Amino acid sequence: MPPEAVIRVSDLVVGFGTQTVLNHVSLAVERGEIFGLVGGSGSGKSVLLRTVIGLIPAREGRIEVLGTDLVHADDSTRQAIQKRWGILFQQGALLSSLTVLQNVQFPMREHLQLSQRLLDEIAKAKLDMVGLGPTDWHKFPSELSGGMTKRVALARALALDPELVFLDEPTSGLDPISAGEFDELIRTLQRTLGLTVFMITHDLESLYTVCDRIGVLAQGKLVACGQISSMLQSDHPWVKAYFTGRRADVLQRRFAQTMS
Ligand SMILES: Nc1ncnc2c1ncn2[C@@H]1O[C@H](COP(=O)(O)OP(=O)(O)OP(=O)(O)O)[C@@H](O)[C@H]1O
């Protein structure tokens, strides 16, 4: 049986005014994989993610998520699908007036009717999953480090037990050790919870270590899509420069060792 696509984007065209940002982009993200989307600054990665989750309208094309055509879906169908995904926005986007625990409970309050005791229990369990404990429960976002903020945002993204999570540059702004730990956390959660992950990243290390497949956007098109090994063989100038440039050297050697 062919793998099941959790996200299927076909011939997508998105633009603003006279600018076409995505020009007939097609891609599929399979169930259970970690798909990394990469591309130069301004290449349309965030626009693609925002269009898939319904924040930006498509001019043409088809977007299917979890088997539902979202371009033509009515509000209630769309809301039912939205409950099945979680999103980690770039800066964490925590509500500054709410504590860590309350931030994680926020989506549950919106979508579920649970007692306060149950909300507390679930939120604490989600925070435990991302490595945060009782000393962090009652802190406000301003009292958190960058890494902790990302962890709280991830716990919130997991609040409704999603099948699919969207991560917008999950390791940006983290030092290399924290970024590595966060990558490991994503991988562990993806395996234990059976998640499908769609993530935008600039982080080469993440692309090498956690992504099962990678898609590359350039000039409004998906110019490469596949495993890291196919990125290393690509003739596209941007893909070549990105994956085989000097910065990529150490990772490439490490990758070659693991493959031999
Ligand atoms: N709401 C908007 N209105 C008008 N233009 C927009 C809007 N959002 C994005 N754009 C334009 O779309 C293009 C792609 O932007 P996008 O944010 O998707 O880039 P990106 O690949 O995510 O970049 P980065 O890696 O720097 O975050 C840019 O030219 C940007 O100016």
From TrEMBL:
Domain of life: Bacteria
Listed InterPro entries: AAA+_ATPase, ABC_transporter-like_ATP-bd, P-loop_NTPase
GO MF annotation: an example: ATP binding
UniProt keyword list: ATP-binding, Nucleotide-binding, Transport
Tagged with keyword Nucleotide-binding: yes
Keyword Transferase: no
ABC transporter domain boundaries: 7-244
Entry protein name: ATP-binding cassette domain-containing protein
